[in-house]
């Protein structure tokens, strides 16, 4: 909620200018807002709406399973419902809600005016909304995916010919774009947009967790995107990546899916723990115990969680050694997970705890999560997992982990942060009712599932026979599910009930110590009146006159002299101010870009490839307009006085600039997807006696080597262009670009000629298919690199890029470093390896 | 802009924090890939995996030596300056101590996790 200009602003011209610069658009233009407070709020509301949708699907399943041999849903409907329930909860709620809360609150926690790329956040949100509605909508037409949230082939490649699997693959890939966009935004936000003085030892724990989680997203989501690409190619073009009769293997999908899927559990768990790390000190009235230990826990869990993926595959016949290695890692991850829980308990023990609904949900969440964690340790033991695999024991386990570790903390977070966002407090009385209904309902619903599983009830069956003797347990689970749902209804009513007559909550209603509680009531669109200097972890508790100094503009950027939206960029480690960053304001370009990007994925679902291609061209054009008009502005002056005698540059390029970091982080994710495809190539090599198959045509070495050489020359040309631009040698710069573009085209041609000149038919066997994928991946990246080079040339011609203001070409050079590496790896795999392997 | 601002991109503390778990990750991947490739391509019909056991033992010695070195560096940073000052002051020294402490703890965790992986090869010597 934001207020109109008040008397304070009218008295203080600095405040007035600041207010005007950050003013939220009104009327229909409200939806053009890109500020974190608006986009974050929409994101939260949309995520919760999908959560309710997923919850209703869960109730439908519980009705169906309430009694043996029920016919409330048909088998086909049930398959759609359980697939959508899992997919919606994981892809449309659990991950987006963490991004939503972070976009909404992280800038406030860091005392920043906004995250560094507000339009990227908005683009991510609109992609998420369009993709989510598309995926969810499919169930109303009876064409929803039916393969479970993990979409295992060959069921989803050979036995499900409907459009459902394509909707899942393409719709959710589209949403993953939003997740990676958010990851870029959050990593750069934490590293570069902290307030002056907030060194690494003073960062709010939430930010540490989010940094870890965003990096995890960067390495976990791309393997799934790679898997989606392979499966969609098999479904659309008959490239046999998972077809055993032509050399493929469904196990590759399981590897790629679970390299994503297990870290995913921690990706949704850690941000919720992060919320608890903000809530617990406030209600314990003391600083968090063991800050360094929690950093250990966050970073350690982030790493170890990548070593667990095969524990979802213990029953697939892998070698005993492999199973043992992953079982060991699954046990080891309990150590950092346990450490952070002990830190919370210790903080509550040493503090003076005040009662609150927030704390109830915190404690309920911790207790529930610990039960789920203990059953997790059980299923990490392979022999036990052989018995429990694919039974309702696992359903019970995973819901204890996810509801205890994610849902309860998020509800605690809603009660905690609601006053900061809306200015009104939720009801403690309704909150207590909601809590007890949820806690009791949850345990009645999910605890019996452990027993029904041990009695032999398999997962994902639409009904069961009375002779299995699990009817009573299922009936109890169904009753519990409705009690749990009643708890959510009470919570929902508390959130949505009209509050116009309710007085505004006091500022910093919980007497918390961290920066987000600087928010005024009602909140102002500028975030903070001035960007503070931070000297402690809990500045509102420990720094004298802190709030007054912020409010009276005694810190940095207390105004907006040029009427621009500005925030501070600081150094990664010491948080010293290094730039006054201007961020763009409201626009509808992000909507257009999201619609056209969505068109590529959605139209492809129905195999309307021409329309999808047109949509793709429009998406690229829109994004180029967005970049042209909204990034790397040349300022009217080089430097600006940001207050307290500090003068900072307005424009920086290279590794000091947020744009450079965004490119670097994006390309790390891109590289991870590429390495996942390379993993696929070597996976086929390990499982087949003869790979590359004797007698099969490879791409040879001549064309791939020519491609590598030309692309390496392009890389050198781009670096030369960067240098000549910096030396203001225009003709040399344009010459290098022309040379680079020409050779790029030659490189693409050489790449494609390798497999095509050797008649490699990608539908005949998995070997030509995986070679084609690697080559096409590289070629596509070179084509994007051509567009980037032409963009830089156009920017210089238009006077938007100069020798001094050269961020565009610097970032494009960074992109080409990655392309050079991609080309080298492609050459090593498709050209060099076959010579060695034979 | 002060002179110190020009040297803003000292990101070494972040690398220090992640270095020990990164070594665990490399040890883990190397062990898994060695086992997977050996069992798929080179194992005898009885499934004996003695070569994998030897390879993982070598990986483990290398990984533990590196992790111990990181732990020592982390511990020294933690004890930088006055020994018992806290981690939550605003100065650079406090930051150094806190990062050193977390680096040290993560090295301990990584060492335990690495030994966990190695122990599998002590007890399991077959692909079957």
From TrEMBL, chain A:
<dbReference type="InterPro" id="IPR000298">
    <property type="entry name" value="Cyt_c_oxidase-like_su3"/>
</dbReference>
<feature type="transmembrane region" description="Helical">
    <location>
        <begin position="167"/>
        <end position="191"/>
    </location>
</feature>
<feature type="transmembrane region" description="Helical">
    <location>
        <begin position="616"/>
        <end position="634"/>
    </location>
</feature>
<comment type="similarity">
    <text>Belongs to the heme-copper respiratory oxidase family.</text>
</comment>
<dbReference type="InterPro" id="IPR035973">
    <property type="entry name" value="Cyt_c_oxidase_su3-like_sf"/>
</dbReference>
<feature type="transmembrane region" description="Helical">
    <location>
        <begin position="291"/>
        <end position="311"/>
    </location>
</feature>
<keyword id="KW-1278">Translocase</keyword>
<feature type="transmembrane region" description="Helical">
    <location>
        <begin position="814"/>
        <end position="837"/>
    </location>
</feature>
<feature type="transmembrane region" description="Helical">
    <location>
        <begin position="658"/>
        <end position="681"/>
    </location>
</feature>
<dbReference type="InterPro" id="IPR014241">
    <property type="entry name" value="Cyt_c_oxidase_su1_bac"/>
</dbReference>
<feature type="transmembrane region" description="Helical">
    <location>
        <begin position="357"/>
        <end position="382"/>
    </location>
</feature>
<keyword id="KW-0408">Iron</keyword>
<dbReference type="GO" id="GO:0016491">
    <property type="term" value="F:oxidoreductase activity"/>
</dbReference>
<dbReference type="InterPro" id="IPR023615">
    <property type="entry name" value="Cyt_c_Oxase_su1_BS"/>
</dbReference>
<dbReference type="GO" id="GO:0022904">
    <property type="term" value="P:respiratory electron transport chain"/>
</dbReference>
<dbReference type="GO" id="GO:0004129">
    <property type="term" value="F:cytochrome-c oxidase activity"/>
</dbReference>
<feature type="transmembrane region" description="Helical">
    <location>
        <begin position="701"/>
        <end position="721"/>
    </location>
</feature>
<feature type="domain" description="Heme-copper oxidase subunit III family profile">
    <location>
        <begin position="584"/>
        <end position="835"/>
    </location>
</feature>
<keyword id="KW-0479">Metal-binding</keyword>
<feature type="transmembrane region" description="Helical">
    <location>
        <begin position="41"/>
        <end position="67"/>
    </location>
</feature>
<dbReference type="Pfam" id="PF00115">
    <property type="entry name" value="COX1"/>
</dbReference>
<keyword id="KW-0560">Oxidoreductase</keyword>
Automatic annotation (TrEMBL), chain B:
<keyword id="KW-1133">Transmembrane helix</keyword>
<keyword id="KW-0472">Membrane</keyword>
<keyword id="KW-0812">Transmembrane</keyword>
<feature type="transmembrane region" description="Helical">
    <location>
        <begin position="54"/>
        <end position="77"/>
    </location>
</feature>
<protein>
    <submittedName>
        <fullName>Uncharacterized protein</fullName>
    </submittedName>
</protein>
<feature type="transmembrane region" description="Helical">
    <location>
        <begin position="98"/>
        <end position="124"/>
    </location>
</feature>
<feature type="transmembrane region" description="Helical">
    <location>
        <begin position="12"/>
        <end position="34"/>
    </location>
</feature>
């Amino acid at each position: 909620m934001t207020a109109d200009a008040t008397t304070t602003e009218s008295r203080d011209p600095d405040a007035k200018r600041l207010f005007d610069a950050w003013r939220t658009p009104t009327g229909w233009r409200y939806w053009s807002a890109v500020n974190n407070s608006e986009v974050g709020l929409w994101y939260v509301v949309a995520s919760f709406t999908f959560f309710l949708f997923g919850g209703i699907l869960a109730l439908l399943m519980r009705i169906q399973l309430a009694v043996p041999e029920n016919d409330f849903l048909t088998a086909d409907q049930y398959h759609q419902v359980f697939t959508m329930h899992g997919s919606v909860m994981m892809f449309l709620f659990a991950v987006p809600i963490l991004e939503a809360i972070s976009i909404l609150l992280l800038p406030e926690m860091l005392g920043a005016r906004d995250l560094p790329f507000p339009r990227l956040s908005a683009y991510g949100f609109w992609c998420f909304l369009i993709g989510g509605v598309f995926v969810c909508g499919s169930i109303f037409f009876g064409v929803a995916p039916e393969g479970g949230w993990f979409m295992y082939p060959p069921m989803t490649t050979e036995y499900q010919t409907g459009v459902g699997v394509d909707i899942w693959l393409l719709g959710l890939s589209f949403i993953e774009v939003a997740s990676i966009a958010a990851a870029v935004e959050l990593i750069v936000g934490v590293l570069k947009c902290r307030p002056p003085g907030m060194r690494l030892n003073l960062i709010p724990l939430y930010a540490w967790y989010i940094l870890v989680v965003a990096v995890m997203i960067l390495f976990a989501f791309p393997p799934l995107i790679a898997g989606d690409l392979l499966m969609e190619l098999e479904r659309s073009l008959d490239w046999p990546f998972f077809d055993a009769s032509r050399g493929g293997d469904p196990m590759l999908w399981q590897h790629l899916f679970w390299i994503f899927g297990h870290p995913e559990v921690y990706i949704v768990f850690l941000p919720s723990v992060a919320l608890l790390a903000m809530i617990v000190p406030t209600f314990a009235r003391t600083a968090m115990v063991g800050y360094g230990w929690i950093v250990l826990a966050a970073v350690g869990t982030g790493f170890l969680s990548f070593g667990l993926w095969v524990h979802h595959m213990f029953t697939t016949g892998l070698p005993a050694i492999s199973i043992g290695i992953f079982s060991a890692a699954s046990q080891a991850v309990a150590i950092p997970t346990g450490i952070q829980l002990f830190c919370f308990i210790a903080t509550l023990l040493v503090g003076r705890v005040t009662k609150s609904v927030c704390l109830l949900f915190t404690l309920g969440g911790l207790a529930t999560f610990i039960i789920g964690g203990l059953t997790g340790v059980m299923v990490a033991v392979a022999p036990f997992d052989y018995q429990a695999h694919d039974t309702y024991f696992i359903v019970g386990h995973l819901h204890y982990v996810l509801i205890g570790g994610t849902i309860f903390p998020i509800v605690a977070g809603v009660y905690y942060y609601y006053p900061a966002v809306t200015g009104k407090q939720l009801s403690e009385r309704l909150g207590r009712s909601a809590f007890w209904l949820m806690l009791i309902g949850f345990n009645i619903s999910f605890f019996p599932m452990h027993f029904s599983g041990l009695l032999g009830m398999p997962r994902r069956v639409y009904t069961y026979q009375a002779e299995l003797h699990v009817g009573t347990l299922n009936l109890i689970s169904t009753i519990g599910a409705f009690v749990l749902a009643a708890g959510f209804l009470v919570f929902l009513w508390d959130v949505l009930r009209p509050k116009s007559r309710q007085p505004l909550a006091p500022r910093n209603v919980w007497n918390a110590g961290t920066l987000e509680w600087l928010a005024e009531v009602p909140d102002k669109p500028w975030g903070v009146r001035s960007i503070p200097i931070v000297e402690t972890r809990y500045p509102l508790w420990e720094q004298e006159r802190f709030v007054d100094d912020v409010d009276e503009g005694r810190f940095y950027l207390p105004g907006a002299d040029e009427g621009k939206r500005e925030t501070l960029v600081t150094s990664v480690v010491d948080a010293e101010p290094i730039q006054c960053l201007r961020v763009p304001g409201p626009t509808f370009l992000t909507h257009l870009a999201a619609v056209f990007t969505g068109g590529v994925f959605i139209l492809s679902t129905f195999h309307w490839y021409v329309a999808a291609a047109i949509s793709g061209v429009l998406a690229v054009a829109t994004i180029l307009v967005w970049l042209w008009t909204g990034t790397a502005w040349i300022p009217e002056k080089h430097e600006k006085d940001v207050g307290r005698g500090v003068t900072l540059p307005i424009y920086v390029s290279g590794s000091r600039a947020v744009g450079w970091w965004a490119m670097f982080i994006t390309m790390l994710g891109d590289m991870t997807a590429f390495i996942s495809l390379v993993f696929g190539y070597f996976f086929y090599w390990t499982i087949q006696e003869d790979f590359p198959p004797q007698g099969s045509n490879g791409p040879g070495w001549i064309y791939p080597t020519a491609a590598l050489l030309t692309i390496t020359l392009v890389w050198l040309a781009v670096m030369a262009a960067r240098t000549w631009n910096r030396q203001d040698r225009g003709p040399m710069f344009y010459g290098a670009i022309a040379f680079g573009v020409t050779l790029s085209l030659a490189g693409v041609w050489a790449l494609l000629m390798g497999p095509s000149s050797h008649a490699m038919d990608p539908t005949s066997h998995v070997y030509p298919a995986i070679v084609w994928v690697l080559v096409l991946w590289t070629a596509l990246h070179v084509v994007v690199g051509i567009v980037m080079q032409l963009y830089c040339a156009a920017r210089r011609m238009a006077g938007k890029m100069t020798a001094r203001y050269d961020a565009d070409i610097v970032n494009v050079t960074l992109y080409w470093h990655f392309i050079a590496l991609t080309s080298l790896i492609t050459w090593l795999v498709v050209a060099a390896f076959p010579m060695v392997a034979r | 802009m002060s002179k110190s601002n020009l040297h803003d991109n000292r990101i070494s503390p972040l690398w220090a924090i992640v270095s020990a778990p990164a070594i665990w990750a490399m040890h883990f991947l190397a062990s898994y890939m060695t086992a997977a490739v050996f069992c798929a391509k080179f194992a005898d019909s009885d499934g004996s995996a003695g070569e994998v056991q030897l390879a993982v033992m070598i990986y483990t010695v290398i990984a533990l030596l590196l992790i111990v070195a990181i732990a020592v560096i982390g511990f020294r940073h933690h004890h930088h300056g006055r020994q018992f000052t806290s981690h939550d002051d605003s100065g650079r020294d406090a930051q150094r101590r806190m990062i050193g402490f977390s680096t040290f703890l993560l090295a301990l965790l990584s060492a335990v996790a690495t030994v966990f992986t190695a122990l599998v090869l002590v007890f399991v010597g077959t692909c079957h």
